[in-house]
Amino acid sequence: MRIAIVSDAWRPQINGVVTTLGKTVESATALGHEVELISAEGMWSIPCPSYPEIRLALRPGPRVRERLQRFAPEALHIATEGPLGLAARSYATRRAVPFTTSYHTQFPDYARQRWGIPASIGYAYLRYFHGPAVRTLVGTETVRANLQARGFGHLVLWSRGVDTSLFRPDRAARSEAEARWPRPIMVYAGRVAMEKNLEAFLAADLPGTKLIVGDGPALEGLRQRYPSAVFLGYRFGERLSRALAGADVFVFPSRTDTFGIVMLEAMACGLPVAAYPVQGPLDVVRQGVTGVLDEDLSQAIRGALQLDPEQCRAHAQLHTWERCTRQFLGHLAVAAERPAPVVRITTALPARRSVKASDT
């Protein structure tokens, strides 16, 4: 089958969306499908405000139309709700082409935290965007229930996987880490940004070493406020695996992620997870087996340190990318399926106000 995937997030960006799409493309190709990934590469673009790693394509409609017409996909999947996603959505709805979408990011909550935009406006836009899709793919049951409560329809599950040959226990990495830092070693890996709630981890009064793997706009501020923590910067592939495998517990303080693939990567390295009982961890972590979820993050960390690393590894091995890709393929819309009528939603915007320095 010829499959077109349209995404505003793509390499060289490093995030869960890119990991998911990249592994899906690889697995689908290995299963014999032909996949065309349409990203902002080669188009005029600007950095996304507060997330400059993502490039937002400018006037992408003609390029998206030309590539879709040339490739003539049998299935179209729109992965993100940015300019490229809008262009592909417009192409499909104008021609009554069935398509699927996926929901990866809590955009309304991020917009509220970063710019003060009411979440109701963000969710109204997302209902408009995903409304014509035959199906909208979500990562967990908790996300599906939350979106259904907000008026979203045609939601189906598309889980995530982990490469357990790359992410694995490593005795040499543990010895190396122990020679450098006192245990217990608590590690976070991911984007270093406000929405990841890293201060809840860094401010916790706990013995041992706190490692932060990653980069982002909050890095310098956190480095100055928490000089006792170790900030390793970005790690990729084998280096990321070794950074995880050398630690004792993985700390995931985010309250807004829709899944959190890095939790599976940590489990594959034999690390239990400490997190809040919120969407993402609720569906990924087996309470008391592969991690501990608690509103007291320090208590979650202490509890997770008592768990069996082998149970974490065994749980991660159940989540293969091939299995997730087959799930994705089963949800794709084919020509016989028609999209729902476009729903036009109007939302009353709040009155404009002046912006103060404290607002930014």
Structure overview:
- The chain is an alpha/beta fold and 360 residues long.
- The protein has 2 domains: 2-161 and 324-359, Rossmann fold (3-Layer(aba) Sandwich); 171-316, Rossmann fold (3-Layer(aba) Sandwich).
- 38% of the residues lie in helices and 17% in strands.
- The protein is built from 15 helices and 14 strands.
- It has helices at 16-30, 61-71, 83-94, 107-115, 119-130, 141-149, 171-180, 198-202, 219-225, 237-245, 261-268, 281-284, 297-304, 309-316, 321-331, and strands at 2-6, 34-38, 45-48, 51-57, 75-78, 100-103, 135-138, 155-157, 185-189, 209-213, 230-233, 249-252, 273-275, 291-293.
- Strands 2-1-5-6-7-8 form a 6-stranded parallel beta sheet, with helices on both faces.
- α1 packs across α15, α2 (61-71) crosses α3 (83-94) and α11 (261-268) crosses α14.
- The longest helix is centred in the N-terminal third of the chain and has 15 residues, at 16-30.
- The radius of gyration is 21 Å and the shape is globular.
- The termini are far apart.
CATH superfamily of the largest domain: Glycogen Phosphorylase B
- Fill in the CATH topology of the largest domain: Rossmann fold
- Fraction of helical residues: 25-40%
| Largest beta-sheet details | 6 strands, parallel
> What form results from the Cα inertia axes?
globular
Low-confidence stretches: 343-360
Strand line-up of the largest beta sheet? 2-1-5-6-7-8
Number of domains: 2
Number of DSSP strand runs = 14
- The helix-and-strand class reads alpha/beta
Tell me, what is the CATH class of the largest domain? Alpha Beta
Q: What is the H/E order?
A: EHEEEHEHEHHEHEHEHEHEHEHEHEHHH
Strand content: 15-25%
Mean pLDDT: 92
Assign the CATH architecture of the largest domain: 3-Layer(aba) Sandwich
- Give me the number of helical elements: 15
Radius of gyration: 21 Å
Report the end-to-end length measured between terminal Cα atoms.
47 Å
